[in-house]
Amino acid sequence: LKSNPSNNEEKEAQTQLTKSDELQRLHSQALSAYQKEDYEAAISLLDEILAVCVWDAELRELRAECYIKEGEPSKAISDLKAAAKLKNDNTEAFYKISKIYYQLGDHELSLSEVRECLKLDQDHKQCFSLYKQVKKLNKQIESAEEFIREGRYEDAISKYESVMKTEPEVPVYATRAKERICHCLSKNQQPVEAIKVCTEVLQLEPTNVNALKDRAEAYLLEDLYEE
């Protein structure tokens, strides 16, 4: 304005200054809500700010943190992905994305994201530790699926039992492993065992289509047609 004063530009500048003050006020409120652990309010305030400050990596990371605390990790991923692009060498964002995918049971995407972190810093302790865990689990699952394709059901069962030992903390892997063991037992003409394992899966996930189909096959082998 000092270099080129005009009425129009002065109005525009005043509008932008007012908006800027308003956004700073919202920012203070968002931080305060976050500190008070009112994550829902913080998200709502950050939504308003990010509608204007689209390229602010820190604010996206903060909103992602709120989503995680609110138990909505899938929503956190898109903010963290943006933050990983907006901020150079953002190993922390890649680590968090990988960790979320891992907790959600998507080991392949988790592996791909943690590799991005190690490309930026091969000595990153958290990423390296997560990488070893995911890589081991990924290899076991791939190997088990290969056995299933070859009809080597006993070997596949044994491999999926190893998966459950490798990751006892994240329930989704045990459920998936049991679902595949149920499939193998059914295919391997072991109906009694198959029914038992399929039922365990269906107690956790009553609408699991694969477990329902495999248990149905096992019931057929036992001539339990009504079931």
Automatic annotation (TrEMBL):
Gene3D superfamilies attached to this UniProt entry: Tetratricopeptide repeat domain (1.25.40.10)
TPR repeats: 91-124
Gene Ontology molecular function terms on file: misfolded protein binding; protein-folding chaperone binding
TM spans (from-to): none
Pfam families: TPR_16 (PF13432), TPR_8 (PF13181)
Coiled-coil segments on the chain, per record: none
UniProt-listed GO biological process terms: protein folding in endoplasmic reticulum
Positions of region (Disordered): 1-21
Listed Basic and acidic residues bias regions: 8-21
Signal sequence segment: none
A single cellular component GO annotation: endoplasmic reticulum
Key words of the record: Disulfide bond, Repeat, TPR repeat
InterPro entries noted in UniProt: DnaJ_C3_Co-chaperones, TPR-like_helical_dom_sf, TPR_rpt
Protein name according to UniProt: DNJC3 protein
Organism in which the protein naturally occurs: Semnornis frantzii
Species lineage: Eukaryota, Metazoa, Chordata, Craniata, Vertebrata
